[in-house]
Amino acid sequence: MSAIIDDYITTLTPRAKGHIRGLAKLVITGHGSVMLSEAGARAGDEAADVVLSASDEVFRNILSGAQNPVMAYMSGKLKVEGNVQRALKVSAILTAQG
């Protein structure tokens, strides 16, 4: 597992834990993927209810609050597959500070 994926797991576990239903996958282009569930974040690449794909730079900007996830989606920087309502919930978790 790469240091980049480890960093996402460390950052996203407290944000996702107890706040997400089902399974979401973040695909960080060229680095791998992170699975989000009620238990937190972990490395993985299985089927999920919703899949968000973007570059490391885009995800880091979303996590820091420098990039609005809806605008990233509308501009084509963030790709979404699956349930849109779940994608919105995942984006709220990504932008949560804490």
From TrEMBL:
Organism domain of life: Bacteria
Pfam family, one: SCP2
InterPro entries according to UniProt: SCP2_sterol-bd_dom, SCP2_sterol-bd_dom_sf
SCP2 domain span: 32-94
GO CC list: cytosol
Protein name per the record: SCP-2 sterol transfer family protein
Taxonomic source organism: Roseovarius mucosus
